[in-house]
Amino acid sequence: MRLQLLSAIPLAAILLAAPSADAQSVEDVGRLSGVTTVDVRVSATWDEAITMDAGGATGDQFRQALLMTFKETISETDAAPSVLEGAPNTVTCNVDTFYEPGQIIYGLRTQLEQPGDDGAPVVSWIRSWVGSFSMQQMHVMFTLGTRCAEQFLDDWASAN
Predict the structure, then answer these.
(1) CA angle (92 as vertex; 88, 93 as ends), nearest 5
(2) Range name among 21-30, 39-48, 50-59, 95-104 with the lowest pLDDT average
(3) Cβ partners under 8 Å of residue 124, min gap 6
(4) pTM of the prediction?
(5) Can you tell me the distance from the alpha carbon of 94 to that of 80, in angstroms, rounded to the nearest whole number?
(6) What is the DSSP string of 123-141?
(7) Domains of the chain by range and CATH?
(8) Strand partners, 21
(9) Strand blocks (E) in 2-70
C-alpha cells in the first residue's frame, strides 16, 4: 500500500501542474480574438483521377477557384478581419481530394497562423472536417473555398 501511495503522489503532482486541455486546444475560438487583418492562402492536393475519369477541372484550375472563392468570401463579409497581402496573420484553406469511382472524398482544414516568439509562423487555430459527394455534384468542389471561409468567419465572429 505504501508503494502505491508514493507512486500516486508524483502522478497527482504532474496532473495538477499540467495545463488544462482547453487552454491548449487549437480549436478554441478564443484564439481568434483580436485578429483584425489576415493574409489568405490555399493549399490543395488534387487527385488527378478526378480529371482523368470525370474530365473537366485540373488541379491548377481547382486551386485558382479555391483561392478566389476563399478570398472573396472573407473580403466581402462586413463583419470580418480585413484581407491584407503580407499581413502577419495568415488564414489558410487546405483541401485534400481522393477519387473513388463515382465519388469524390475531401478533407478540409482551415487554420490561422500567427508569428511565434521567434517570428516563425505558428498554427494558433484550426478546424477540420471531411465530406464526400457524387461525381454528378462536381460543382460542389468549387464551393469548398467558401465553406472554409465561412467556418473561419463563424468562429472569428464568435470570438470578436
Answers:
(1) 165
(2) 21-30
(3) 26, 31, 112, 113, 114
(4) 0.79
(5) 20
(6) EEEEEEEEEEEEGGGGGGG
(7) 26-159 (3.30.160)
(8) none
(9) 37-45
Strands 90-100 and 37-45, by their bridges, are parallel
CA distance 76 to 110: 18
Residue in 107, 103, 100 with CA at minimum distance from that of residue 130: 107
Q: What letter would DSSP give residue 87? A: -
Kindly give the pairing relationship between strand 37-45 and strand 82-83: parallel
Residue with cell 478554441: 28
Which tens digits make up the pLDDT trace of 79-130? 999 999 999 999 999 999 998 888 889 999 999 999 888 988 889 999 999 9
Grid coordinates representing 30 are 478564443
Nearest to 44 by CA among 104, 91, 106: 106
What grid cell was written down for 71? Answer: 478570398
CA distance 145 to 153: 12
Select from 86, 129, 124, 125 the least CA-distant residue to 106. 129
